[in-house]
Amino acid sequence: MAGTQLLARAVSVLLYLRERDEPVTVGEIAQALSVPANTVYRIVRTLEMGGLVDRSHRPYVSLGLRMMDLGQAKQRLLARELAPFSMPVLEGLTAATNETSLLVMPTGARAICIFAVEPSRAIRLSYQPGRVFPLYAGASGKILLPWVSPQLVESAIAQADGHPLPDGRRLTAARVRREMASMRAAGYCVSHGEIDAGASAVAAPVFGKGGQIFAAVSVAGPETGFTDDRLPELIERVLAAADEIGRHVVARP
Length: 253
Fold this sequence. Notes:
Blueprint lengths: L1 H19 L3 E2 H8 L3 H13 L3 E2 L5 E4 L2 H32 L2 E8 L2 E8 L14 E3 L4 H4 L7 H11 L12 H14 L2 E4 L6 E9 L5 E10 L8 H21 L2
Helix pairs in contact: 1-3, 2-3, 4-8
């Protein structure tokens, strides 16, 4: 248990450094994570030896350059495994809708953009691979929430409770749970202005072997293009794209 707890704390340190996106002190990390400062210091020294954190500007700590290498290695792996069958589907989806198409995958209590295909028109949404989305707001990430583990659901709901949306409203745990039930029943999600003001998205889940959640497909763009009369077509195309990618995922060795 002691080793498992230490590993969990080391992961928490790395994730905290990512979320802060700026150098912090050991004391700040300890206070934020409610971990003794001497424990954080030992974790940081160990991570520094592996190049995962940088302490060259003491007393500040930041993510290490080795994280770039790990990220690039994962990108190459995903490109080899997923791009051959998912990119043509996303390109076809963008060509049909003239909106940005995304393949998003769950990562802990977050979602991350794996591939993005943008339309050629001047006014569009631009998302780069590696963009992280919450699981409680915005269709691209939120559609994953009904099918992740109960522990991740509770973590995402805890993050959501009281979170302000761009329009000034605040999320509640009860609202997120209602939306989960609605998404599970409908099989898709539509959102307006939940992450970026004036932006809308339609998303559908991609299931792998055994019916496990694997990813999500979405189209996103300016809210003016996601009108009530156009939504049925967008939903139909996103559902079809998610189903096609899912068939390839299931068929993989």
